[in-house]
Design goal:
Blueprint: E1 3-7, H1 12-23, E2 27-32, H2 40-50, E3 56-60, H3 66-76, E4 80-83, H4 92-95, H5 97-117, E5 122-128, H6 152-171, E6 175-180, E7 183-184, H7 193-202, E8 207-209, E9 216-217, E10 220-221, H8 222-233, E11 240-241, E12 247-248, E13 251-256, E14 262-263, H9 264-277, E15 291-293, H10 309-315, H11 323-338
Parallel strand pairs: 1-2, 1-4, 2-3, 4-5, 5-6, 6-13, 7-10, 8-15
Antiparallel strand pairs: 9-14, 11-12
Helix pairs in contact: 1-2, 1-8, 3-5, 5-6, 9-11
């Protein structure tokens, strides 16, 4: 049983991780600034599920507030920190760059400083498959160079990895970065394609399928992501000295992805079938009249594809939830949450 801080605990991955940790008996404290980047009602719904646990505590806090964060660390003495709080989204970073500098750089710096002054056994933090940019080599390996981000969001995530490495080297802080690949599932983020498509189709609006449907995505179901994070939490990089007697940074980076990219057109086809099956949409819905193939958009990449060899080797785990199963669970949740019922 550990005392664990989960930042971004009202978020998609964060709330699901909190539940798993609470179920196994850990004491979980979560912070989140509850910003309105997307519908805050979903964030409150997630927190309602967590507030049922006696070993859970939520604090509304912004990571940019360094003093408040330091006071929390001084008071609570965390064993483990999982930093999932961040401004997400590739396209939003083009129009709202300040949000990314504040949350993803200054906020993460404050987390590193807190872990430096109030040492923890393990800092686990979210990176992203976006760091691979437009790399041509697939699947993406953590051994690949990632020096050419195509969005500010990706640049901030790569910066997180570099900052964590520096603090790991300087202060011997065990750090593990996790590059997540296109996470989806129930109570997800409305800005993600599957959620946004559903919202538009419900309203009879047209959905835009970028790169004329020729994108490939390594869709990863949220339960698989959380299982991977849980295993990583429990196995911090080992502290050891090099031949020169100086500490080797206890630092690792892993991909967590499905290792099975799907075409966007196949994804849309499965989504529409599961929305009909869940009675979110009527059986006679005319999808062809509500979809439009359009060019690639700025900041996006044509393919994401995770090499999970290291994850399998070190933790005996590989995400494997089929896309249809994951989208079915999303459709069923959507029907219940939004009280949708088609005949």
């Amino acid at each position: 049983m550990s005392k664990i801080l989960v930042t971004g605990g009202a978020g998609f991955i964060g709330s699901n991780l909190c539940k798993v940790l609470l179920d196994r008996g850990d004491q979980v404290i979560s912070i989140d600034n509850l910003n309105d980047y997307y519908d805050v009602n979903i964030k409150y719904w997630r927190l309602e599920q967590l507030n049922k646990y006696s070993n859970f505590k939520f604090i509304k806090m912004d990571l940019v507030d360094k003093k408040e964060l330091m006071d929390l660390f001084e008071c609570e003495h965390f064993d483990i920190v999982v930093n999932l709080a961040a401004q997400a989204g590739v396209r939003y970073s083009i129009t709202n760059p300040d949000a990314y500098i504040n949350s993803n750089l200054i906020g993460f710096y404050n987390i590193l400083e807190a872990c430096r002054h109030y040492p923890v056994k393990h800092l686990v933090y979210a990176s992203s498959s976006s760091v691979y940019g437009s790399n041509k080599k697939v699947p993406y390996s953590t051994d690949d160079k990632v020096d050419n981000p195509v969005s500010l969001y990706a640049a901030t995530k790569k910066s997180n990895e570099l900052m964590a490495h520096a603090y790991s080297k300087l202060y011997n802080i065990p750090c593990t970065g996790l590059r997540f690949f296109t996470v989806y599932g129930p109570a997800g983020r409305p800005d993600m394609a599957y959620f946004g498509f559903t919202n538009k189709l419900i309203k009879g609006e047209t959905i835009q399928i970028f790169n004329y449907g020729n994108c490939l995505r390594d869709f990863t179901y949220v339960d698989d992501i959380v299982e991977g994070v849980k295993r990583v939490i429990d196995k911090a990089p080992e502290k050891k000295d090099g031949e020169d007697g100086l500490p080797i940074p206890p630092y690792k980076v892993y991909n967590i992805g499905n290792n099975h990219p799907e075409s966007l057109l196949d994804f849309v086809q499965i989504l529409q079938e599961e929305l009909i099956k869940a009675k979110v949409l009527p059986e006679d819905y005319d999808f062809e009249a509500h979809k439009k193939l359009v060019p690639m958009q700025a900041g996006d990449v044509p393919v994401t594809y995770a090499d999970t060899t290291d994850l399998e080797r070190d933790f005996g785990f590989k995400p494997a939830t089929p896309l249809r199963e994951g989208l079915r669970k999303f459709a069923e949740w959507y029907k219940e949450f939004y009280k949708v019922e088609c005949k």
